[in-house]
Q: What sequence folds into this?
């Protein structure tokens, strides 16, 4: 039996573009394709304190309604991979470290 892959996707403190939260369904699909990961996987969004308004680091477990990667309609002439709708659940650092089996 193999454990599910765990991916921690961190928001960049100086990101001027779309946040990891608003692009979650596309980002996870691209990571699955590029790394040939099995699904379902464990996707965790990480917001370092420098990237948050209140200065507090956060972790969110993101679950998707379906884990099949599909191609979305073209945007500016390019099709985009996509996965099912996302839902978020707050996690603490200790729980994340248990999930990954070490320090984060």
A:
């Amino acid at each position: 039996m193999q454990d599910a892959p765990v991916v921690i996707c961190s928001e960049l403190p100086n990101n001027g573009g779309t946040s990891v939260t608003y692009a979650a369904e596309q980002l996870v699909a691209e990571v699955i394709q590029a790394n040939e990961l099995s699904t379902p996987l464990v996707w965790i969004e990480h917001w370092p304190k420098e990237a948050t308004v209140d200065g507090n680091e956060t972790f969110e477990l993101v679950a998707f309604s379906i884990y099949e990667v599909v191609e979305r309609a073209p945007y500016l002439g390019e099709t985009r991979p996509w996965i099912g709708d996302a839902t978020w659940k707050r996690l603490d650092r200790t729980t994340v470290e248990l999930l990954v089996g070490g320090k984060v």
Summary: The first strand starts at residue 6 and ends at 10.
